[in-house]
Amino acid sequence: MNDTSGMKKNHRLTLTLLLIGLALAACLLAWLRPAWLGMQPTVANLDVSPTTEVLPVQPKGIGDNFTLLQGKQEVSLHDFLGKVVVIYFGYASCPDVCPTTLGVISSALKSLSSDELAQIQPIFISVDPARDNGDNLMAYARHFHPSFVGLTGSPEQVKQVADQYHTYFANMETKSYLGYLIHHTSKTYVISKDGKSVTILPASMSKPDLVNSLREAL
Q: Does the reported pTM lie above 0.85?
């Protein structure tokens, strides 16, 4: 009886130590993973506004019209006057925050009625024109929702539009297979039908946050 009790105690002690070791290993892996991949978090720390803001367009606030390229075709924001426009800046090679945020946008769009969706135009603007050409950019954007339009332009054009929307981005060399990543602000912009106001949602936005903003704009 004593031998059996002792064996059970040793078994429990061994199991406890094993579980503690696995937990410590998981913490260590989570801490080391960015260094192994040659990556750092892409953006969340650059989104310094944790709350939703509603601002007028330029010259008093943010935004205003712009023209970028869908492949070789010029597309302007004013082409979509009469629709609520949803804009997100990112890039197709983004490993984390872009697919996460685009997934939230997609989920919000899919929860709307067909009549509501017909009045909304989502736009994905790539801050990586060197790698995101017209075909792969549109394919990437429409992977999340078929109504997305993927736009980019020359580095100068993209920088100008990013500045209009107070969006920051900068290339960051890494040792990963991607060659470089891009730090960029992660905010979602909802532009009114008349193009005169912009609702800015933070990186932490949820699906209900976006749905509510879209319906208010409608």
A: no
